[in-house]
Amino acid sequence: MSKIEKIKELARPLLDRHDCDLVLATLRQEPQGRVICLMVEKKGSDPSKGSGVNHSLCASISRDMGTLLEAEDFMGDAFVLEVSSPGIERPLTDLVDFERFKGHKALIKTRKNIDHSKLFTGVIRDVDQDRVYVEFANGTKTEIPFELITKANLVFDSSAFEVKTGE
C-alpha cells in the first residue's frame, strides 16, 4: 500500500467522526520535508453554498490527524499537515463526484485528445460505469472515458446567482 493510500485509510474514519468527507489527499516533498494535504468538506455540502468547513474544524481535524499519524509513527521524519476546504471550484476525483455534481459546470483535462481536444468545459449530463457525458454551451455533447481524465474541477458559474440591486 502506498503512503498516500495509507493516509487516506487513516483519514476516512477520523473524518467520519467530524461528519466530513475526504475530497483529496496529497503527499509532496518540499525542501523543509514532507507535506500532507487533506482537502475536506462536510458530508453532502453544496460547493456553491460553501463546504461547511471553517478554520475551527480544519484545526480540529489537523490536531486529530496529526496525533493519529504520530501514534502510528507513519511518516518517520517530521512532516507538515495542511487541512483545507476544497472551495467553490472543488476537484472532481472519482466517478462518485461526477455523479453527485450532474447538472453542474466542470472543467475536465484528459491525457489524450477526444474530438481533437484535451480540455473541456461543459455541464456534466450523465455518468455511467466508466464514462462522463458532458454538454457544451453550443448544445453539442461528448463522452469522456474516466480513465483518460487527468484533472477535473467544478467551474464557478456566476449566472447561478441572482444579483439584487438597491430597492
What are its keywords?
single chain, 167 residues, alpha+beta, GMP Synthetase, Chain A, domain 3, SH3 type barrels, five-stranded antiparallel beta sheet, three-stranded mixed beta sheet, 3 helices, 8 strands, 38% strand
Question: Can you describe this structure?
Answer:
The structure is a single chain. Helix 1 crosses helix 2. The mean pLDDT is 89. The chain has three helices and eight strands; from the N terminus they run αββαβαβββββ. The radius of gyration is 18 Å and the shape is globular. By secondary structure, it is of the alpha+beta class. The protein has two domains: 82 residues, GMP Synthetase, Chain A, domain 3, CATH 3.30.300.70; 66 residues, SH3 type barrels, CATH 2.30.30. The chain has a five-stranded antiparallel sheet with strand order 7-6-5-4-8. Strands 1-2-3 form a three-stranded mixed sheet, covered by helices on one side. The N and C termini lie far apart (60 Å).
